[in-house]
Amino acid sequence: MLSDREFEDWCRRLCLPETTKELVQKIRNSEPVRKVGGGAKNVCGSYPSRKMGKTIQFESHKVELLAIVEYENDEDVLEYYDQPIRLSLSFHSLSGRCVVTSHTPDFWVMRRNSAGFEEWKASERLKILARKQPTRYQQSEEGRWHAPPAEMKVQAMGLYYYLRTDLEINWIAYQNYQFLQGYFNQENTVKKEVRKTVVECINANPGVTLKELLESTNTDWADDIYALIGTKQIYVDLKAVALNEPEKVHLFSSQEMASTYDLIIAQKTSARIASGQRIDVAIGSTLVWDGKSWCVIQIGDTKIALQSENELIGLTHANFDALIAQKEIIHIQPLSAKTTDIWEQIKCASSEDLAVANYRYKVIEPYLHGSPPINSSVPERTVRSWKSKYHQALNNYGWGYIGLLPNRGKKGNRVDRFSPDTWEFIDQIIEQHYENLKQRGKLATYGILVREWEKAGKTDPCPSRITFCKRINQREKVGQTRHRQGSRAAYQKSPFYHELTLSTPIHGSRPFEICHIDHTELDIELVCSRTGRPLGRPWATILIDAFSRRIFAIYLTFDPPSYRSCMMVLRICVQRFGRFPETLVMDNGVEFGSIYFETLLAAFSCTKKQRPSASPRFGSLIERFFGTSNTEFFYNLKGNTQITKQVRLVNKTNNPKVQAVWTLPELYEYFCKYAYVIYDSREHPALGMSPNAAFTKGVNQSGMRYGQKILDDENFKIFTLPSTAKGSAKVIPRLGIKINYIYYWSIDDSFLNPEVESTQVQVRYDPFDVGTAYAYVKGNWVRCISEYYSSLQGHSEKEIRLISIELRQQKNQYNQKIAIRAKELAQYLESAEAQEVLQTQRLHDLAATDLRDLIYKNGRKQTSSTLTQCPVDSDEAISTEEVSQTHQLNTSAIELGKIQAYSQEELWQ
Questions:
Q1: What is the pLDDT of residues 391-445, one digit of tens each?
Q2: What is the rounded CA–CA span in Å between residue 371 and residue 287?
Q3: In whole angstroms, what separates CA 106 from the centre of its chain?
Q4: Regarding beta strands 138-139 and 145-146, do their DSSP bridges make them parallel or antiparallel, or are they unpaired?
Q5: Across the beta sheet with 515-521, what order do the strands follow?
Q6: What percent of the chain has pLDDT over 70?
């Protein structure tokens, strides 16, 4: 970001008016004017920007997120801000009425020599908007989109307004920038001898592919090679070829060497083509290559896309011309109109039609060759008719066989019995009386049709009930279900979305790139390990890697989904792998919008994506695992709740609460063995290999990324703890810091330091033990204990919340927000009444404590045994020790103790 002096110089260089300068300064110092939402179909979220030092919102991960990554890596962009300001726009609607509306551009962008607002939209969406609001959205003859009302609004201020579309997005560049995200600042981590060896290899072999370099060098050098690419010490055209396809990536020492290489290859190819065949291809042309028929479906600036019956590939122009020169590709002229018509008739013919045509041809074949049979069972008149049709088709299409097809589908009376007005009347009855939330039956709706038919005085006979029901069944099912049962029911019948255009892999191209996190209530009843009392069904929070389908972390608790579960599952992920997800996909649960959760993701450069509401297909990976774990694990345990799906069959004998024998720690231990060992080592049908093998293969190819190493130490655990809404607290002399109405004092008496007293310090508290908190004093996290530590120790935050509610009820002020003092909480915890109110919650907390002790005690040991016991399909396996160890190239891990928490304003809460 620009300093104050650099900003003044920038404004002076652009000759910005004083009013515009004030507007820009206001945008820079203000928070976004609105919090984005993804709507019904878009995936929204926040991106941790290195350039801006804060998180940037995006409303669509297929448009605006890519724009953010473009700004992030564009050296011409100095600063950019999301949802910067509201503009009042005026334009005329289709009816000619003047419309005034408020509009918030997606981004405010400050470039070296210009500045303005940029709005991003999908091109197909713009076409629809242009039809609805032609004066607001317009497309020029060159194909560029404009928004005249917005442009006129900002031009007077010396600014621009660009309306940009997804057609401007380079998906390959975006994919490469995301791939290199962990290597942009790792120049110092590459050893000199490694850099020297790699550069010498590339200088000796200009244009060597990334795959060849990875195979010819030390297998541990993958991270170093990617670091050299990320820091531009090795040149790769990041906008032309994806790094996750190493066999297509050519490496050079500089951009000039790459240009020279391309020129030489182009000259060689032109010489080969001049001596060989010359083919002018067009979209729709048919080619024969390697014994297969290919169709040209796209000709781009850098690639030609070819599609066979079950395969789609892309060839660069140089490779395509080379294959032509070697005569490996043979050109077939496009089909003529007659030939196309022939094949259309063949495709429309049924197997019975083809059998009839074959029989007819067999009968007339002797006549066509001038040797008619002596005794034929087919009448001569029929033979003449077939011969006539054969010769007529021969003259029209050049193939007489077409004339022998019976074309039974075209026979009969094809005239509709009812007029268009009649069908329109029927459709109106269906829309008004059948397709609504009353969900009338078809018979009842048909009765309304008969009644309305008579009222309208129609002379034509009313359609029959069968015809009416057929008309209902012919209508569009998704819309019909939406009108009758709502959007959630319609979602189940909506067609699956298919990626038909080039974009990034939907599940990522490497481990940790995209992870899904979600909660589910397990179908099993548990008991207390101390008393044997039924405790109910636990909740599971699961983190899964989209690329390898590997389960990264599992956490069980009796508490409903909350930020505590999210924090714990991320702790376990770091404990097992020493890594943090790069992108986290989640639903719209309130726990994922927590200020603590947002802060944690932003601090570790994790992009947050929230899938649309009531759209489980966006999280199909983790939803599928929920179902698989139920059928393969939980439904085989005593106390599972399958029988409760049929409530009338439940009795005292088969009641899951009576059958329950499992405790929370025992269930967690065995569930981890199932997920981390059995599921991890078994072949996944979507991958063709086990999740462990897919993870190993992905890490070998994309690098271990030691620069993103996170140490699972006390600092990290403290950082995952929640804070107050403000994020800090004032050190009050003789009392300490106040968190949630409870005073805490530092155990080392650092609060007595005159330099610390009456200052604001960053604070954290333990949601599982409200007797303990932490304060960031003079560069270190200091443990603090409550003034009533003996009474509050070991009690969870949720337990204290229940106490507060009970005390407010006793004071008859439940609906009023009153402060409950720490002394009252401590006294209540020691009372007999508390034993009754909090007994269940306390048992839940005790079970959760046992579980966390198990996690911390056996976490690393469990992961080690998991990976060593799992059979891996790959020849090379990565052990947990290799994942957990620091980089041998002296890479420094993230110093969590120096990370400052984001303020509430920075996270727009």
A1: 888 888 777 888 888 887 777 777 888 888 999 999 999 999 999 999 999 999 9
A2: 41
A3: 20
A4: antiparallel
A5: 54-58, 44-49, 607-610, 583-586, 515-521, 539-545, 551-557
A6: 84
